Amino acid sequence: MKHFLQFSDLSLEEYDYLFKRIALIKHKFKSYEKHQPLVDRTLAMIFEKASTRTRVSFEAGMYQLGGSVVHLTTADTQLGRAEPIEDSARVISRMVDLVMIRTYGQDKINSFAAHSRVPVINGLTNEFHPCQILADIFTFIEHVGDPTNPLQCLKGKIVAWVGDGNNMANTWLQAAKLLGFKVHISTPRGYEVDHNVTQLGSSDCYKVFDHPKAACQGADLVTTDVWTSMGFESENNARRVAFNDWCVDQEMMSVANPNALFMHCLPAHRGEEVQAEVIDGPQSVVWDEAENRLHSQKALMEYLLLGTL
Length: 309
Ligand code: CP
Known about the structure:
- With 309 residues, this protein is of the alpha/beta class.
- The chain has helices spanning 12-30, 53-64, 85-92, 106-114, 130-144, 167-179, 195-198, 212-216, 236-242, 250-255, 276-279, 286-306, and strands at residues 42-47, 68-73, 98-102, 120-122, 158-162, 182-186, 206-208, 221-224, 261-264.
- It has two domains: 7-129 and 292-306, 3-Layer(aba) Sandwich (Rossmann fold); 132-289, Aspartate/ornithine carbamoyltransferase (Rossmann fold, 3-Layer(aba) Sandwich).
- Helix 2 (53-64) links the parallel strand 1 and strand 2 (68-73).
- The longest helix is centred in the C-terminal third of the chain and has 21 residues, at 286-306.
- The protein starts with 11 loop residues before the first helix and ends with a helix.
- The chain binds phosphoric acid mono(formamide)ester.
- The site of phosphoric acid mono(formamide)ester has 8 residues, from helix 2.
């Protein structure tokens, strides 16, 4: 049994398979061709934080695969009344085939997985957002690569990360180490990536820049996220000051490669971490990126339950 708790949980070979499978599943979806390998399987989705994309993509995706879903939140389950996470895992995993959790600390999802009889998927924690990066990298491959050889187009490419050293940044770094591209990262002072979390060892998969424009120089993809992630709202005022210069604008995009893409996991705040002219401009692929959450998570759920087909 495999869990998907962070990007480093799967191997290069597994990602090669998954990216090819996502392309096939997306093609079937676009052709209105039924693809229902998960008939009679049930996914429990546990949300301790708000969501639009993750909720819709997992729920629609599981139904499209022939299965069904149970939607749980802290507010309407015993999770919100202090039932231990280990007990919740033991019970829920006896009743469903797969669990997706969006929560706060990675320790919580790790504990759930350790006591679960079924695969567990990280739908976002404070530390990682692996489902988002799976979709983002597929989107990059789709736009610049060869779907029959998905990993090839990533070699030597530069991803510029502008902004918070958060769960998205951590996950991009794990992906870069595994898949062979580089992350040029620029965060305000005090908001750097925590390498106790990323566990990159001596990898040279990233380079740190003081100035965000310098990080964008020669990049093949420029990406960012909100200044204040969910769970950090009490820091909002301090972050507004610290992140003022970390706003992706046309000047930053102009020093990236001419064909560079722009991505944002959404929701976005135009005029804060990104200017409208960028996110709504010709280099932005944010709507493909959002849609690809559906296709990539369908491939992931199929893989975790059925293995390679
Ligand atoms: N990007 C993302 O995870 O979106 P939601 O918070 O809407 O699920």
